[in-house]
Design goal:
single chain; Alpha-Beta Plaits; two-stranded antiparallel ribbon; about 35% helix
Length: about 220
Amino acid sequence: MWGVETGSEDTRKSIISVPDPDSGLPRTARTSTISAVRKLLPLLALIPLLLAGCSSKTISAFTNTTVATVARPTPVSTAVPPPLVLSMGYDQFAGNCPDAAVEDTTLIAYANSQNYNFDMSLTISPTGGCGADLKSAAYANFIRQVGQATLILNALDTAWVYGYVATRDTFLTNLFAQLQAHYPSLANVTITVLYGGATRATLTYTGHGQPTVQDLYS
């Protein structure tokens, strides 16, 4: 029973609220609640942003689990250093002066022509005038003065090591002849062949007669 309708039509609408049959609340009260909730929605969307600004860690709103950042190690370069070349322009491991380094390269090329693969190092003395111009008197005098040479051969494969003894010894004798042709005054020469860090053969020359070859694995 809704009571007696009195007064004008506008008065009745402001006084009487028709109840919503679904909610059990007056329609005016339900409309006000929905409007208030809609006004709060933008504020609710800002809550995750406010929480993110309060901490430097990553926080999950669903699992409440903190995720730690793991630093990865920086890779270290393992580049192989280049051969040491002095300021005057030669490899000090090939020879102890420019001309010795050039002759060392020449002897390696000769070995390659005989199908042998060696790394070599040549030391000579004296070295005064070693870096002089090839056409100068100083260089010509230097060539005549060189009387001692030490040549070390490091076999890079087994071509020489497992070759015939006579062939190996002939190669060393010919290698000495190549060296003597460049330094004609040599009176003290030692040539050593290494393989795997062990001495395999030697050639010695004392300035008289023929060089002596000692093959340790003949």
